[in-house]
Write the structure tokens for this entry.
Amino acid sequence: MSMDEFAIIKHVFRPLAGNDTPAMNLENDTAIWHPPLGHDLVMTKDVMVEGVHFLPNEDAGVIAQRLLRVNLSDLAASGAKPQGYLLGFIGKAKVEEKWLMAFAAGLARDQEEFHISLFGGDTVSGSQSLALSLTAIGSVPTGQAMTRGGAKPGDHVFVSGTIGDGYLGLQSLLGNSARDDDAIRSYQLPEPRLRLGLELRGLASASIDVSDGLLADMHHICEASRVGGAINLDEVPLSPSGKKYACENMAQLLRLATSGDDYELLFTVPEKKAARVHEIAAKVGLSLTRIGEITGGSKFSVFGSDGKEIDVSMHGYRHLNR
Ligand code: ADP
Ligand code: MG
């Protein structure tokens, strides 16, 4: 059975809006939210298109959760606490009720996990392909949001968790490699590092979530901070799946460091405060690995296991057109 736009809003999205919330039962033109006193609003949007950002046969609930989580990951990088979200739903001519219910159930699961609710959105149908747009809204004490700018020469560069699992999960899902459930989970349901983001406020000089690829995102920090940087590929933390994949040669390790979809936090910390990072790792229960440093000038260098600099452009790494 397919549903029209009004039925979708009433039966699918309204239950996600909660009671006594900014959404006002989705009966109003707008949501009205009072940000906590003394806080800045932090906003971010990601768009996902069927066939481009998710596979047509992927589970609807998982698509919903990934859509939400990639946005929460951006909030985490800013050190923000998530509050709510707006949803743009661009459906095909016939939107199946069963698919919609599974999609909403995925959102409901993560709303509970991350203590947020649906503030509002817009719904249209008749599109050639399904497209989803989500705007996440968070808050941070005034002036304390972290950005990509702010890294200084001498700062240490850290990354959370492990790198490359999103790529390995997608390859596994596409049938290009053997089934790897851990990696598939990393790709489908990334963990936004929200607790880490809160802990890094006042400590990290710059922060970004790894969505484009570790090297590209490091490059983003360097550009925004107007500094140079160096990464030791040998130090990049890998999961058991990643180690197995990259055991043979540098090109494979480089692929993991350039593929993206990791949703880990990459951040810089002044040398004097770097010891604090280990305390935070223990507190949030997440490995935080030092993988490089910030330098003066504007050069971005990548070093291999033998300590030799790698010409990353030789390995298909192009930051400019990513
Ligand atoms: P308009 O005619 O102004 O576009 P709509 O009829 O689309 O208004 O929306 C009515 C209400 O339903 C609004 O509160 C809007 O935020 C909410 N809404 C519409 N689509 C969605 C959606 N996909 N997710 C959440 N809320 C939605
Ligand atoms: Mg209106």
About this structure: Residues 156-303 form a domain with the Phosphoribosyl-aminoimidazole Synthetase; Chain A, domain 2 fold (CATH 3.90.650.10). The pocket of adenosine-5'-diphosphate (ligand 1) is lined by residues 9, 13, 26, 28-29, 87, 89, 118, 120-123 (CB under 6 Å).
